[in-house]
Amino acid sequence: MSAYDFSAHISELAQADQLRARRLVSSAQDASMVIDGQRVLSFASNDYLGLANHPQVVEATTRALKKYGLGAGASHMVTGHMAPHEELEERLAKHVGMPRALLFGSGYAANLGIMSALAGRGDVIFADKLNHACLNDGAQLSRATVTRYPHNDVAKLRTLLAQWRESGCISGSSVRNGARIVIATDAVFSMDGDVAPVPELLELAEEYDAMLVLDDAHGFGVLGYRGRGVLEHFNMIGTGKKPANDRIVYMATLGKAIGGYGAFVAGNEDMVDWIMQSARTYLFSTATPPAIAAGCIAALNIMAEDHQRRRHLRMLIDFFSDSLKLQFARMPFSQTAIQPIIIGNNTTTLQFAELLRERHFLVPAIRPPTVPQGTSRLRVSLSSNHVADDVFDLITAITDIEVTLLGSK
Ligand SMILES: *Cc1c(COP(=O)(O)O)cnc(C)c1O
Fold first, then answer.
1. Fewest Cβ atoms nearer than 10 Å: which of 10, 143, 304, 407?
2. Which of 283, 302, 299 is nearest to 291 (CA)?
3. Which protein residue's CA is at the shortest distance from atom 7 of ligand 1?
4. Whose CA is nearest to atom 8 of ligand 1?
């Protein structure tokens, strides 16, 4: 095969049932959407609190759009840092109990910037095996030595850290004196919905003088009674003047529960300042449109005050997982809006998703390389915009299809 024969490469993907296709959406984000010309009940979005198309959010965005226009026109460090950005940073920091927050263009850009600002050649990064792609890419970009530990395996991580301390080298690469150590983990894992053991990881960070990077893209707005995310979940919210622990590098995105676009990092003042001074994806990229920042402020207000949304979502999560966990042995325990049903092989998973779609339910089939080989799954995302009947109907459909397709019971 010629190196440039891209059509052959694509055929290979198709053969392995790994070809991806986009769907055309012609309605706003909601429980019910028009996708590829068909009205479906969508269980496929990260808009967990139904804020992407909330009237107050749309209105705040429109108002800012009229005042500030479309684009920021420059990076934050030149002339792109506008009043809505500043206000959003202050509000986000306060919401997660941190002294300081810094906005990034996207979660992907944030993780590239954060990881390469915190670690460099001669430093060492310990990363969970199931971390999101952009934490991995950030770790690679930093040029630090990267070691991946088995998923949520604190004991194994402790062993790796001890080995590193004893030998001064890891995976064959030697580490410089006074090296920084970064432990990086998704706070909520994006394909499994489970939560990282943050208190135990923080203990290790203390013991080994490391920083702890938490990517809370899926926990922010969902976890904690006030939606403050994984830190609230573990009762580790800081005072606002001080983080609960200076080693915490808290990152979350604005494209999921906030329903907007962008991301932020929050933590102790000096660390955030350092990231601002050195993260290349911050310095060399245009600031997000100011109207988006204004819309995110409106969404944050609702997220912080409208507890009914979170309560309803929590009820749906419990209802869904309680109903199906007995039926699917391989349904990982998840207390979040991400509810995976592991099917195994690609073909059956695709068929399952297709049969759901014939019944007008949109549930994505997630396949390698997004998840490990042999763990293809349906990934159900719940939102406070769903009503209990929506979830009931989905459970019924899944149960029916399981019998015809997998022949069980
Ligand atoms: C979605 C996601 C990101 C990327 O955020 P974007 O703003 O979409 O670029 C990063 N980390 C995790 C865990 C995510 O799920």
1. 407
2. 299
3. 107
4. 107
Q: How far apart are CA 395 and CA 349, in angstroms?
A: 16
Q: What type of residue is 204? A: L
Alpha helices in 306-337 (DSSP H): 307-324
Inter-CA distances, 319 with 313, 326, 381, Å: 10, 12, 13
Residue 184 phi, psi (nearest 5): -125, 130
Cα of 162 to ligand 1 centre, how many Å? Answer: 31
Cis ω before 369 (30° cut-off from 0): yes
Q: Based on C-alpha coordinates, what's the Rg of the chain?
A: 22
The greatest distance separating any two alpha carbons of the chain, rounded to the nearest whole angstrom, comes to: 64
* Helix ranges (DSSP H) in 147-227: 154-167, 198-207
- Residue 102: which residues within 8 A CB-CB, separation 6 or more? 89, 264, 265, 266, 272, 275, 276, 282
CA distance linking residue 63 with residue 241, whole number of Å: 32
Pocket perturbation via mutation, ligand 1, pick of 130, 249, 253 by most ligand atoms within 8 A of CB: 253
pLDDT at res. 173: 66
Residue 70: phi and psi, rounded to 5, are -80, -60
Per-residue pLDDT tens over the stretch 237-259: 998 889 999 999 999 999 999 99
- pLDDT tens digits, one per residue of 180-231: 999 999 999 999 999 999 999 999 999 999 999 999 999 999 999 999 999 9
C-alpha to C-alpha distance for 194 and 332, rounded to whole angstroms: 8
User: What is the best residue among 130, 131, 190, 282 to mutate for testing ligand 1's pocket, by most ligand atoms within 8 Å of CB?
Assistant: 190
- Residues within 6 Å of ligand 1 by CB: 106-108, 111, 132, 134, 186, 190, 215, 217-218, 253, 255, 263
